[in-house]
Amino acid sequence: MDLRDSPREASFREEARTWLAKHVTGEYAELGGRGGAGDQTFALDVRLRWERELADAGWTCLGWPVEAGGRGATIAEQVIWNEEYVRAGAPGRVGVIGEGLIGPTIIHYGTDEQKARFLPPIREGTELWCQGYSEPNAGSDLANVQTRAVLDGGEWVITGQKVWTSLAQQSDWCFVVCRTEPGSARHRGLSYLLVPMDQPGIEVRPIQQLTATSEFNETFFDGARTARENVLGQEGDGWTVALATLAFERGVAMLGHLLSFRRELDRLVTEARRRGRLDEAVVRQSLARAYADLEVMRYNTLRSLSGLDGPAAPPEASISKLYWGSWHRGLGELAVDILGMEATVLEGPPYELDEWQRTFLFSRADTIYGGSNEIQRNIIGERVLGLPAEPKVRPATRSRTPEERTA
Ligand SMILES: Cc1cc2nc3c(=O)[nH]c(=O)nc-3n(C[C@H](O)[C@H](O)[C@H](O)COP(=O)(O)OP(=O)(O)OC[C@H]3O[C@@H](n4cnc5c(N)ncnc54)[C@H](O)[C@@H]3O)c2cc1C
After folding, report:
1. What is the pTM of this model?
2. pLDDT of 222-252, one tens digit each?
3. pLDDT tens-digit map of 73-94
4. Which residues are tagged catalytic?
5. Mutate which of 368, 375, 379, 380 to test ligand 1's pocket (most atoms within 8 Å of Cβ)?
6. Which ligand 1 atom sits nearest the alpha carbon of residue 132?
7. 316 CA to middle of ligand 1, Å?
8. How far is CA 111 from the centre of its chain?
9. Three-state SS string across 88-114, please?
């Protein structure tokens, strides 16, 4: 793959750069690029206005096909857009779950009616989405989902609890994996429902995180309702659809992450220079290593995404998730090393975390969400390397009494 801009890509880059230079001004420029992972509740109003400004000019959902309302941008064009976006210091995007996860899943599995209903508001930044997968006893083991949905006339009635639902408090819709076939087990009998959040049957309780903010929540469903036609894919085959969303999460949506990582690394180098820490060989080596690893990750992602037209295949998606989660957690640790003792104190009232403290604390989650490192290693071990499957835990059986044994 040729990584230089073709004439068409060069003109696309020019168009993106010019538009961003003209629009990342005033209140948008003042945000200094904030609002990314771990900082998503920051200046939400301003970022929502920005989202609509992007949409009006056709700069959301670039990678979606033209008939779905996107630009049909190639992977190279999406990379260019993200590069220019980061370079311009534009605000962290609000609609990432809609644009990167549920949008592509609806494009892939939705009916024409579902596409017409749900895609335009995602593209226009007027409807936000959250992901209702995890439950108290179904995280890594997602097939253990217990939230139930039963049909009542023309509607699904949903009862159960989800947890760690990012941005549920600001979302209009949630895609919820539910058990719709009573008595079914594991990945059979699940359905993937699209559920409106603003209704009496749903209660969202924010969870306070290490960072003192509350990006994620507990979400309780107590007789929540959605129309029967709001099932994505086949009834009872929600597992297939749920896996596709995970593959999107671990695939193209990655590109945005990589570029914001580059911005963070550049700022950390500046910070180390400002503190005179670049004189130390160990600090220089660690920063150089972080840079080299980030480049490896970038080329690997580009290679695995080129020519892709749908969810990334599980092995590539897992390698990418394992690599970036570990890299970013390592960057948080490196930032704390560079800051030294200062990393452990807050400035003074209102005692807010600074950028590096926030990065360090939030990046502890990078190796958990979207599938933990251990789970990615299991997938790579079993499906890429062909290692024996991990032993399944069987329910304990009662051991025989001595009398039974001699009988
Ligand atoms: C910041 C953040 C945002 C999130 N946002 C969302 C969201 O919007 N929607 C949503 O549905 N979920 C969300 N999650 C939940 C996330 O998907 C789960 O936390 C993740 O899947 C792990 O599940 P768990 O927390 O239940 O941990 P568990 O599954 O209980 O795992 C606990 C530990 O055991 C390890 N483990 C588990 N099984 C195995 C195994 N078979 N082999 C080896 N090790 C194993 C895990 O790696 C982990 O270290 C979010 C999580 C975080 C941290």
Report:
1. 0.91
2. 999 999 999 999 999 999 999 999 887 766 6
3. 988 888 889 889 988 999 999 9
4. 249
5. 368
6. 11
7. 20
8. 24
9. CCCCCCCCHHHHHHHHHHHHHHCCHHH
